[in-house]
Target: DUF2157 domain-containing protein
Amino acid sequence: MDDKKKTIIREIEHWRRSKLLPEQYCDFLLNIYLEDNQEKPGSSGGLFGITASKISDSNWKIWVLGLVVACAFSFTVLHFNAFQLPMQIGVSLLFLACCYGYGGYKREKDPMGSQILIGMASLFLLFIGVYLMKLHGMQSSVFVVTYVFLCSLVWIATGLLARHVPYHLGGWVSLVFCYGWLLHYQLDSISWVTLELSWVPLSILFCWMGWMVHEKSRHMGLVFFLLSLIVWYMPELYGMLYAEQYGEMTLQWMLLVKIVTEASLLFVWRKKWTEWVV
Model:
């Protein structure tokens, strides 16, 4: 295949990944430029760009390198608890840097593989911090919530850079739960009035923020809109945890009123919010 044809095929694959053209149009164009016995780059690209042809044509040095990496990873996992705290933190940061770095590098060429790597790194970030605190006797709720707060900021930044809604939304939801923990320990007595006043204005604020930024960033507008819908029900979620104190019947009626109110608002304003969310 000459260089000109390779360039055209790369452009078609870029159009496919960027959703600039429908999938069937990209397949049609690839059929024009690819020969019958040639493998389509997008048809069986595999995860992280690994195809069957790449495996069959791989060099023995790649296999040796993979074996060394697998052995080093296994040794590190098996002896992780025996390491000193600085070593444990260093190893964890190295793993996170590799996952985030390679995920960011593959974001354009392999979006699915990139999302898997970034998601795995985000979950590992939360897990390893809580695990190390438990391992070294720092199990105070203040330490845990502070660490979750920091993880939330990382997830928000990751979602913004990768323009991926789940990471961005997950970071904000974690911050919301940190706010709920703070309310639980700061308020001496919580009634339905204080609960609603603590959460409903916040839900309205997030909805307003989504409306303000939707023209500049549809991604952020969607995140704030979904977040406002989640925060809307946070008083009832808190009430479920303490149903005996607030009363199950009261909880059911409050939840019903919330659902009807939200459904009515979404219906009345459907021509507005669908423009910047859907």
Remarks:
- Residues 39-45 have pLDDT under 50 and may be disordered.
- The CA atoms of residues 236 and 255 lie 6 Å apart.
